[in-house]
Specification:
The protein is an alpha+beta fold. The chain is 27% helix and 31% strand. The chain folds into four domains: 171 residues; 130 residues, Cupredoxins -  blue copper proteins (Immunoglobulin-like, Sandwich), CATH 2.60.40; 117 residues, Immunoglobulin-like; 124 residues, Immunoglobulin-like (Sandwich). Strands 20, 21, 23, 25, 26, 27 and 29 form a seven-stranded mixed β-sheet that branches. It has a six-stranded mixed β-sheet with strand order 10-9-12-17-14-15, with no helix packed on it. A five-stranded mixed β-sheet has the order 11-19-18-13-16, with no helix packed on it. The two termini are 44 Å apart. The relative contact order is 0.10. Bound molecules: CU-O-CU linkage and copper (II) ion. Copper (II) ion binds next to loops. The site of CU-O-CU linkage has 10 residues, from strand 5 and strand 30.
């Protein structure tokens, strides 16, 4: 079983146990003997089965089971210890086991709430709050059903509940370990490099664009979605003037995957302030890295990018021959972009398809009618790229793959999620059933350039209740916290930094660190075995554990977040910091 299915199975078993105990208790209170015994049996079996899922998950990693071992296991054992013997002795009056069964139900449900609302890491306050809840609920049930607890027992119950509640809330509101990213800092000073050799102006504004023959409202650069394609050659100095005509919530330009100096990174509140209507900002950076990139607003980025504020950035190593096509895929108002394109290509022409995923979820790309190579991922060339055929690739949100082939006499076609977006003629191949390339096993491996890591950080991705803001929200969390309360990762310049990224949740999290490409070391403990993969965007799927590393060689304050921008907006964003 995969870790994701173990997590799902364990959740289902926990729900079954809770429902079994609670339902059994209610049935017993109503003197429905067979029903009560049946439901209690379900609860016992589910609890037994959970022992196997929890042990299996523990073998994958402590991150997946911490609260299950520390909180759920003792409470489940207490449930079995309290309810089990009484069930065996429930000879005449089934009603006598109602309270013990309900106690078990409260205990197991409380532990379940910790998993669903709090997740990782396990905390004493969560445990104490659950104990308070279980004691209170049991005392109330006891009064209602048996009307029997003696004064002393009730008082003791109240005392335990109050003490646990106080301790739990006390711990919950105690000042956190580390402050949030310092947002009230001076923005980095714009450095002025050499004279620009490529100048562009992009004007952001609201507009209406046509997608597949439908008019849709958009936010766009130069009134087009995607914005103009910016191209440069290695060695160029780019100067891009951003103007905002009427985007009320502000705009910026973030050069996704381009490791620019921090002051050019375009993150409002971190490297600059948002450019408001009527204002402008000039970006300038040297293009020293060839490859396929893209730019997008980072101001209210979830809405801004979705509405159309993005475009392609291509940096070529020099003059190129052949055909070079960018395919930036996006979903605008529920409709897919780009419109399908058909063009003639003469046999013998080398073709490079630059596939770009500008959405917040993964897309599947399939190139039919030709053998091809994956020449580059996230702008970095792969070594030893071998020829592939009838193989699909999955590109994470924000990611780019460059596919290359030489045109033959027969046509080729590119499908994205089964929709044809590009072709050089009629191709009737069905691409839906093709296997998917695993980039971790593609190409020629090389040794990892570092033998030791100066800093290691673990990022456990999950969901949890965030009560720190104005309104409570069910946030996407990192190590149990949501932005802006996730402690920044502070390193020193020159450090070799390793991230372990663990996905405990049921959603895919496309991880994106600004300002650096990270080298993939391993996924699920299996070392990367293909060409070195220097990525800026990679999908951490449910249950996966990725290890990546980079050298801290581009000082500043860098956003480090999930590129499902809705998740980033809902808390999944932190910062890497060094000077
Ligand atoms: Cu493409 Cu912080 O983003
Ligand atoms: Cu995410």
């Amino acid at each position: 079983m995969t870790t994701a299915s173990l997590l799902a199975a364990d959740l289902v078993l926990a729900i079954l146990a809770a429902v079994g105990w609670l339902g059994g208790g209610a049935a017993a209170a109503a003197r429905r003997r067979p029903l009560a015994l049946g439901l209690a049996a379900v609860a016992l079996l589910a609890t037994l089965a959970r022992a196997t899922t929890v042990v299996a998950l523990a073998r994958v990693g402590w991150w997946f089971v911490a609260e299950k071992v520390v909180i759920a296991a003792p409470l489940s054992l207490a449930a079995v210890a309290v309810a089990g013997p009484r069930l065996l002795r429930a000879a005449d009056d089934i009603r006598t086991v109602a309270v013990p069964l309900l106690f078990s139900g409260y205990a197991v449900s409380g532990a379940l709430l910790v998993t669903v609302l709090h997740g990782y890491p396990v905390s004493a306050s969560a445990g104490l709050l659950v104990v308070a809840g279980v004691v209170t609920a049991t005392a109330v049930s006891w009064r209602l059903i048996d009307a029997r607890p003696s004064r002393t027992v009730s008082r003791a119950a109240v005392a335990v509940a109050v003490a646990a509640l106080l301790a739990g809330t006390g711990l919950a509101v105690a000042p956190g370990a580390a402050p949030a990213a310092p947002h009230d800092h001076a923005y980095p000073q714009a450095r002025i490099p050499d004279e620009p050799t490529r100048r562009f102006t992009l004007t952001a504004g609201t507009t209406t664009v046509s997608v597949g023959g439908h008019d849709v409202a958009a936010w766009a650069f130069d009134a087009q979605v995607p914005g103009p394609e910016l191209t440069a050659t290695v060695g160029d100095v780019l100067e891009v003037t951003l103007r905002n005509r009427d985007i009320g919530r502000g705009v910026t330009l973030h050069w996704h995957g381009y490791d620019v100096p921090n002051d050019q990174d375009g993150v409002p509140g971190v490297t600059q302030s948002a450019v408001l209507p009527g204002q402008e900002f000039v970006y300038r950076f040297r293009a020293d890295q060839a490859g396929t990139y893209w730019y997008h607003t980072h101001s209210v980025s979830d809405v801004g990018v979705r509405m159309g504020l993005y475009g392609v950035l291509v940096v070529r190593p020099g003059p190129t021959n052949g055909l070079d096509v960018s395919v930036p895929v996006h979903t605008l108002a529920g409709r897919p972009l780009p419109d399908a394109k058909v063009e003639q290509v003469a046999a013998g022409v080398p073709v490079r398809l630059r596939l770009i995923n500008t959405d917040s979820t993964t897309h599947r790309y399939a190139l039919a009618g030709t053998a091809f190579q994956v020449a580059a991922i996230d702008g970095y060339e792969l070594s030893g790229a071998t020829s592939l055929r009838d193989t699909a690739v999955l590109i994470p949100a924000g990611g780019r793959y460059d596919l290359v082939f030489t045109a033959a006499d027969t046509p080729v076609a590119l499908d994205v999620d089964g929709r044809r977006v590009y072709s050089t003629g009629v191709v009737s191949t069905e691409t839906g059933g093709w296997p998917v390339l695993d980039p971790l096993t593609y190409g020629q491996p090389a040794a990892v350039p570092w033998s030791r890591f100066d800093r290691t950080f673990t990022l456990v991705l999950d969901r949890g209740l965030d009560l720190r803001g104005l309104l409570p929200r069910y946030a996407h969390t990192v190590n149990g916290a949501a932005a802006p309360d996730i402690p920044p990762q502070v390193v020193r310049r020159g450090d070799v930094v390793r991230f372990t990224i663990v996905n405990r949740s049921q959603a895919v999290h496309p991880w994106h660190l600004h300002g650096h490409h990270v080298l993939v070391l391993s996924r699920d403990r299996r070392p990367a075995a293909g060409s070195p993969l220097w990525l800026d965007s990679f999908d951490v799927r449910p249950g996966e554990v990725w290890e990546v590393a980079f050298r801290a060689d581009n000082p500043g304050m860098w956003a480090n977040h999930c590129h499902n921008l809705g998740h980033a907006d809902a808390g999944m964003m932190l910062h890497l910091l060094y000077s």
